[in-house]
Design goal:
The protein contains seven helices and three strands. The protein is mainly alpha-helical and 210 residues long. It folds into two domains: 106 residues, no CATH class; 63 residues.
């Protein structure tokens, strides 16, 4: 264990579980990180919460204790990229967060770099929100208006830059729409395959026999 999450909190988890909570999780109110990364991380989660189709749990750590019912409900979520903060919020159940500060790891090395954070952010938005699919619809009236204005300016002035700007705007709008649609179609395809995200190797896992 790298001790980023304090193991002594497990006693508090168990106490809350005995009080009747189905999910007890560590609520990371602070962490040992440089300020720019910390601010970007907080900004990301608040943005995702605002654009998400359903609620997400802010500052939730994977460091948690939950009942078998919560586990089974989350397993039913056939998502090729499970976003745990969204999945748990969606299934409901009685939950409580225990605030704590996450510390530096005392063992091992992380392989989670800035590129991995960006990939995680994009995948998290795709899992939690359909806003990128709806944005082109919201922008369509403005796009048509600007396109018409640029066309009128080109007709009146014969300035080729207005035509260039009109073509660039059209390519940007159509290209962005196709790109986001392709991402969601790819995600839908992967989810439709129904492949498991993880496999359990029984040789290295202690499974309770039934």
């Amino acid at each position: 264990m790298d001790c980023e999450d304090p193991p002594e909190m497990l006693l508090e988890f168990e106490r809350r579980y005995e009080e009747g909570y189905d999910l007890v999780y560590g609520e990371r109110i602070d962490r040992e990180e440089i300020k720019p990364i910390k601010l970007l991380r907080k900004l990301f989660y608040h943005i995702v919460r605002r654009v998400a189709d359903e609620d997400i749990i802010l500052y939730m750590a994977e460091f948690s204790m939950f009942t078998e019912e919560v586990r089974d409900a989350m397993v039913q979520d056939k998502n090729s990229f499970p976003f745990i903060r969204s999945s748990i919020a969606r299934v409901g159940f009685k939950r409580i967060g225990i605030p704590y500060k996450r510390h530096y790891r005392i063992a091992g090395e992380t392989h989670y770099n800035l590129f991995g954070m960006v990939v995680f952010a994009v995948a998290g938005i795709l899992s939690a929100s359909t806003l990128p699919l709806r944005v082109p619809i919201y922008l369509l009236p403005f796009w048509l208006l600007v396109t018409a204005l640029l066309g009128i300016l080109f007709i009146n002035t014969s300035n080729p830059w207005f035509m260039f700007a009109d073509a660039l705007l059209a390519c940007s709008f159509v290209g962005g729409t196709i790109a986001f649609t392709a991402l969601y179609v790819a995600r839908t395809y992967k989810n439709g395959l129904g492949r498991p995200n993880y496999l359990i190797h029984r040789r290295y896992t202690h499974m309770q026999s039934e």
